[in-house]
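Researcher: Next entry in the queue.
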Amino acid sequence: MGKVDDFLSEHLHGLAGPYLFVGAGLSRRYAGLGDWKGLLTHFSELTGHPFAYYLGAAGGDFPTAATLIADAFYDSWWSDAAFASSVDEWRDSVTTRASPLKFEVARYVRSALEDFAPPVDLLHEFELFKDSVVDGVITTNFDSLLERVFPDFRPYIGQDELVFSDTQGIAEIYYIHGGEKHPDSLVLTAEDYEDYNARNAYLAAKLATIFVEHPVIFLGYSLGDSNIQSLLDSLITGLRPENVSKLQDRLIFVEWVPDQPADVSSTVMNVNGVSLPIIRATVPDFLEVFSALGHRERAMPARILRLLKEQVFELVQSNDPDGRLVAVSDIDDSSASGLDVVFGVGAKMTAVGIVGLTRQDLFDDVLQSPARDLPADLVISKVYPKLPITTYVPVFKYLVEAGLWTAGSWQGGSALETAAKRRAERYAELFAKLEEPGVLLSVPDLEAKMGWDRVLNSAMQLPTLTNDVAGLREFLVKYREKRSEPWWSTQYAKAVVAYDWMRFGSA
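Model: Structure for this entry, 507 residues:
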C-alpha cells in the first residue's frame, strides 16, 4: 500500500460508509467527455462563432455564455437537417429557447457512452473504481458513467426528483445538476442556475445529513470549483458557521496531479469567509484511492441494505410490548443466502403494520411485484380511510377478495367500508364515461407506437387502447422507477388504477 491508501484506510475505519462527490474530471478521464467549458465550446462552434465570442459577450460568466449559445442555437436546431431526427423526437417537449441545446447536450453525452470502454491503460484503475465500497454518490455530471460503475445503485435525476422523492440514503446516485436521461433537468444556462440557486436551500438541507454523518470524498474537482464552493456555502449557511466543526475530517478532496508523488495532509479551505477544515490528497492516479475504498467491509451489500430500508417497516406502537420489524416482501434466495440477518423473509403483514402502508406498497401488491399478501379486510378498513379520495390508488383487488365487488358493482354495506366504496364508485364512474374502444393493441405495440411517456400520460384512457392486462402489468413493472419521479408519480398511479380496474374491477 502507498501513503494515500494507508491514510484513507485508517481514517475511514470506524466511520460511516463514505459518499463520493464526482465531477467532470472522472468522465473526462474514463470516457473522454469534456467539462462544462468543453461542452459549450463544442456547441458554440455549431452556431458559427467560437466559445470566446460568447464568453466575452457574457463578461466571462459561463452560465450567461450558455444562455447566449442556446439562444443562437435555437433557430439552427429547427432548420438544420442535421438535427431533423431530434426535432422529430423532441418538438413537442420544447418549453424554452434553451430546450434544443439541452436536447443536443443530452444526446451528445449519451452517444459518448454508447460503446463505452475505459482506456486500456486505465482498465485496472476503473475495475478498482467499480469495486469501491461506498454508501452513495453525488455528482454534477450529466452523463451516466456512474451507473456503469455502480449498476445496482438507484439514480435520482435533477433537483426536483432528489428533493421530492423518498430517498433511502444508500446505494443511490444523485444527479444534482440533472442528467442526460431527462434533458430539461440539465442545469446549464444562467436561467437554470438562477432557478437552481433559488431552491438550493432545500437541496442543501437534504444533503446536510449526508455531510454530517458520512465522510465525503470529492473526485474530479479542483478546490476552487465554483459548483463546490456554492454548495459548501449553502451547507455552511444551513449548519451555521459555529457548527462547521461537525464536518471536521469528513471532507476529503482528491486532486489528480500527474507526474507528482502522492501526498495527503490536513488543511483549511476558505468558503465565503468561513474556514472549513478538510483533508487534501494529491495523486498521480486514483489507484490508491480506489484500493482503500475497496478494502472496506460491509455486512451486507449496499443494494440489499437499500432494499431492506424500502421493504422493512417499523410497526406502530400497540398493546404488544414486543415491537417488531417485519419485512413484507420476499428477498430472492440468491440475495438472502449469504446474509447474516434476514428480516421476515416470506412473512405476511400483520394487522398492526397495515396502518403504515403507503400507496406504493399497494402498487407492489396489486402488481404482485413483489407480492405482499396483504389481508384485504384490513387494507379496506385501515388504509383507505387514511388516504385522500383524490389520491390515485388501486382498490378493486381488495374489494373483490373481500367479496365486496363482483360483476362490476358494489356488494358491501358496512360503515367501515365507506372510504373504499367511495373510491371504487368514483373510479368506476370515470371508466364508464370513456368512449367505446377502437382498435385495441397489445401493450408492447402500444408502447412502440406511442412511446412509454405517452402511454403513461394516457393512463386513464388505457381501457380504450388495450385489453392486454398481462402486458400492462409487465409495462408497469418495467417502468416502476417512474412512480418516484415528481411528474410521473401521478401518471404511474393512474396507470395502476387502470390496471386494477381492467384486472379486477370490470370483470
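Model: Confidence is low (pLDDT under 50) at residues 312-352.
Researcher: Noted, moving on.
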